[in-house]
Write a structure and sequence with these properties.
Layout lengths: L2 H4 L6 H26 L11 H23 L14
Length: 86
């Protein structure tokens, strides 16, 4: 028996609104960050240290892409308490 099955929820519209406002802000910031990291794919540096810096940016982009892939390929619903994490 889980906590969800044994408890009764008392929801206040004010508190629920604040939670969804925070979630909305979080997801907007997350998408802004994703957009900025996606731009790394197109960056190239010139000059004496350009090749080294470009290689570092490519490494950052590849690391981000791997982590983003793991995040976006999740098959469970994070908002559903009955859905199991696989």
């Amino acid at each position: 028996m889980s906590y969800v099955e044994t408890s009764t929820a008392h929801q206040s519209p004010c508190q629920l609104s604040a939670v969804f406002n925070c979630l909305g802000y979080f997801f907007q910031e997350l998408m802004d960050t994703v957009t900025e990291f996606m731009k790394l794919e197109k960056i190239e540096f010139g000059g004496i240290k350009g090749k080294m810096l470009s290689a570092q940016v490519v490494g950052m982009f590849e690391e981000f892409t791997e982590l983003y892939k793991v995040f976006t390929e999740q098959s469970y619903d994070a908002l559903d308490p009955t859905d199991e994490v696989r």
